[in-house]
């Protein structure tokens, strides 16, 4: 197979990474893509860094067997604990969701006040706060862990009063903080963007990293001459639990119907 025909691998703990895959498919419509959602073990967001690194490596090993040319870690939780390890160990280039989103966030931090919304593990890693301060120590960062967002989204309660109530509970304290912009540092959160906007206040700019990740992927493939052009793409979807359950919810995240979902067995692999 020609190098450009090899697929791009995308990985998330569940369905959230499809919001990134949607942008990649939009910007790179000829690329073959293979998606893996570790639905048997979602959520990662409440697990230890050690567990997250182990799961992420198992998922990466599975995708490497699919002969991917590049790996996109479409999960902030996995990225914030494993990106460095993956960039060291992985034989193919690795793009994560962390840096691309942060660059956009910093651009919008006119009053030097930003918020990071993510899972408890992402926020607990402190990585986002660290990178922002490396860029600009004057920026005041307000990190907020939102542990109930992922289960509410997985239950498809996108505009339910319960989700609004929880969003108000997590975010109301930010309303008095004159935040310029907030990073949606979880690939699930774009699904409840209107509710987050309402809870955090209308003036706060919400940043989703997916488009920037797709742009970074395009640049990388162009520079390495492995961009696939003028060909029909082949998209493949794998999960570690119940393909049908994933298929039913996937369209909300991917924007179109996902026809076939396969089961991946990655447990017990090194
Ligand atoms: N989609 C994952 C992320 O971007 C969160 C889901 C989880 O907790 O596993 O962080």
Kindly describe this structure.
The radius of gyration is 18 Å and the shape is globular. Helix content is 43%, strand content 16%. The chain has helices spanning 18-27, 49-65, 76-89, 98-107, 120-125, 127-135, 149-154, 161-171, 193-200, 210-223, 243-254; strands spanning 8-12, 33-37, 70-73, 94-96, 113-118, 140-145, 181-184, 205-207, 235-239, 262-263. The strands form 2 sheets. It has a 6-stranded parallel beta sheet with strand order 4-3-1-2-9-10, sandwiched between helices. It has a 4-stranded parallel beta sheet with strand order 6-5-7-8. It is of the alpha/beta class. Helix 1 (18-27) packs across helix 10 (210-223) and helix 2 packs across helix 3. Residues 12-14, 16, 42-45, 75-77, 119, 122, 150, 186-188 line the site of D-glutamic acid.
């Amino acid at each position: 197979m020609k190098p450009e025909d090899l697929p791009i691998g995308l990985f998330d703990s569940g369905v959230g990474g499809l919001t990134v895959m949607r942008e990649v498919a939009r910007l790179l419509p000829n690329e073959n893509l293979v998606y893996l959602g570790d639905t048997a073990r979602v959520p990662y967001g409440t697990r230890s860094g050690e567990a997250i690194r182990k799961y992420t490596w198992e998922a990466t090993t599975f995708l490497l067997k699919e002969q991917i040319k590049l790996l996109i870690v479409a999960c902030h939780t996995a990225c914030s604990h494993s990106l460095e390890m993956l960039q060291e160990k992985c034989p193919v280039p690795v793009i994560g969701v962390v840096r691309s989103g942060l660059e956009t966030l910093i651009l919008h931090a006119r009053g030097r006040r930003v918020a990071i919304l993510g899972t408890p593990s992402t926020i607990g890693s402190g990585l986002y706060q660290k990178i922002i301060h490396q860029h600009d120590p004057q920026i005041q960062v307000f990190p907020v862990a939102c542990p109930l967002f992922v289960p509410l989204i997985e239950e498809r309660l996108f505009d339910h009063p319960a989700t609004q109530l929880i969003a108000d509970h997590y975010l109301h304290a930010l309303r008095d903080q004159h935040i310029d912009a907030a990073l949606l540092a979880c690939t699930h959160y774009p699904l409840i963007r209107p509710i987050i906007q309402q809870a955090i206040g209308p003036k706060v700019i919400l940043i989703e990293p997916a488009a920037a990740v797709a742009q970074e992927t395009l640049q990388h493939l162009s520079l390495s001459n492995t961009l696939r052009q003028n060909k029909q793409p082949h998209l493949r979807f794998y999960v570690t639990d119940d393909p049908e359950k994933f298929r039913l919810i996937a369209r909300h995240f991917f924007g179109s119907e996902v026809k076939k979902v396969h089961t991946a067995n990655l447990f017990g692999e090194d």
